[in-house]
Amino acid sequence: MESVIITDKAFEPLTAASQFQKYAGGAGAIASFTGYVRGEGGSVSRLRLTHYPGMTEAKIKVLTAKAHVRWNLLACHVTHRVGDMGAGEAIVFVAAASPHRRAAFEAVDFLMDYLKSEAPFWKQEIGPGGEATWIEPKENDRRDIARWSEG
Amino acid sequence: MIKILFFGRLSDFAGPIACTLPKDVATTQQLIKWLGREDVPLEKALTAKGNRIAVNKELVMRNAPIKDGDEIAFMSPLSGG
């Protein structure tokens, strides 16, 4: 079971976790990750995420299907926020359920690395004066994703 | 008709375009040349390292064939999460 939600509305990660736990009933292990908009000491007041409707959902479904097969998961889920959001708001929630912990941890780590630089999202920081700066993947994001290559 | 979309940093250079498939354009590279015929900064942005191209919402190689009815998306490096 895999599910993907792209939303332009604020979501509550604890509610998402509780829903996933019901959805993945009977799993021995559930791991989840939530990413939040950083405060950066007031220098970044907002983030703006855009996506490519249709392609983004399809691409994430391919990623969740890959994780499902690779770690033999019972279930996995991705909620990703788009639009404008402020410091402290959740951007992304990823959860994986499996019989044992290792698979769940690794699947969540894998999904996050791929969401960072292989899913059609674009991120802008909106500064206190309203100025928008594009954020692009860094060298460490590329290194993170290289860890999963099947060689 | 074809539809041309620009995402991320590239959306600073051009908005969505709907037009008839230009004569002599049969590949994504030819489309970039055509878009750049009167807009050098756009052509330069489209050929920057790390960009991706999708045709009908599927990633393609840099020089992919295109035909009437296609939706072509030019995308700057992706950054989710």
Overview of this structure, please?
The complex is a heterodimer of chains A (151) and B (81). Chain A has four helices and eight strands, in the order βαββαβββαββα. With 151 residues, chain A is an alpha+beta fold. In chain A, strand 7 and strand 8 form a beta hairpin. Chain B has 81 residues and is of the alpha+beta class. In chain B, strands 2-1-5-3-4 form a five-stranded mixed beta sheet, with no helix packed on it. In chain B, a hairpin with a 2-residue loop joins strand 3 and strand 4. At the A-B interface, helix 3 and strand 7 of A face loops of B.
Key words describing this protein structure:
heterodimer, A: 151 residues, alpha+beta, four-stranded mixed beta sheet, four-stranded antiparallel beta sheet, 4 helices, globular, B: 81 residues, five-stranded mixed beta sheet, 2 helices, 26% strand
Give the mean pLDDT of chain A: 92
Overall shape of chain A: globular
Rg estimate of chain B, integer Å: 12 Å
Instruction: Name the chain pair whose interface involves the most residues.
Output: A-B, 24 and 16 residues
Arithmetic mean pLDDT of chain B: 95
| Uncertain residue ranges of chain A | none
Oligomer: heterodimer
N-to-C span of chain A: 28 Å
Report the C-alpha radius of gyration of chain A, rounded. 16 Å
In whole angstroms, the N-to-C terminal distance of chain B is 34 Å
